[in-house]
Amino acid sequence: MPLPLGKRRRLQQTAGPDGAFTVLAIDHRGPLRRQLASASPDRPLDELLADIKRDIVRALGPLASAVLLDPELGLDACVTHGDLPGSTGLLVALDTGSTGDPANLQTGLAEGWNVARIARSGASGVKLLVYYHPDAPQAPQVEHLVRTIAADCAREEIPLFLEPLSYSPDDPSRRLPPPERR
């Protein structure tokens, strides 16, 4: 089955000349916000985060085949100010990011955002982080979410970059060795 033209073009935008993906991931929010809150208590955190993302994208974006940004702070700041080179692909996170909390392994979706809006923003791809283990009680809900987002991406002819984070359903705080990841 051949790739739809839109998806093929967007994959070309996100890969380097050799076809490899070298993605600068700067879609961090919650954990970064918590770190910055103690370091710069006098400056508005959203402004500080956006400025940091702009600096990183300006410095490293030209070296990557694509940059992954969050829709809440990074996307508008980096595109509006011209920090993201036009020759660099743009991935936008649909998820709200990692909770960093083993007791809260749920995928949240960015408020007001969906696949169609990400495609309209000029993005080359959609990123979705999910916490997943096939034996976990919430596995069917996660699988349904992924199927739904994948169908939306197919409709918009935009690639889905899936970031599954595996965990032990018995002890979510325990890191799984590679043979146990499924």
Terminal-residue CA separation: 27 Å
Structural category: alpha/beta
Strand content: 15-25%
Q: Number of helical segments?
A: 6
Largest sheet: 5 strands, parallel
Shape: globular
Number of strands: 5
Spatial sequence of strands, sheet with the most strands:
1-2-3-4-5
What is the element string, with H for helices and E for strands? HEHHEHEHEHE
- Round the Cα radius of gyration to an integer and report it: 17 Å
**What do the pLDDT scores average to?**
91
Q: What does this 3D model show about the protein?
A:
It is built from 6 helices and 5 strands. With 182 residues, it is an alpha/beta fold. A 5-stranded parallel β-sheet has the order 1-2-3-4-5. β3, α5 and β4 form a beta-alpha-beta unit. It starts with a helix and ends in a 16-residue tail after the last strand. 32% of the residues are buried.
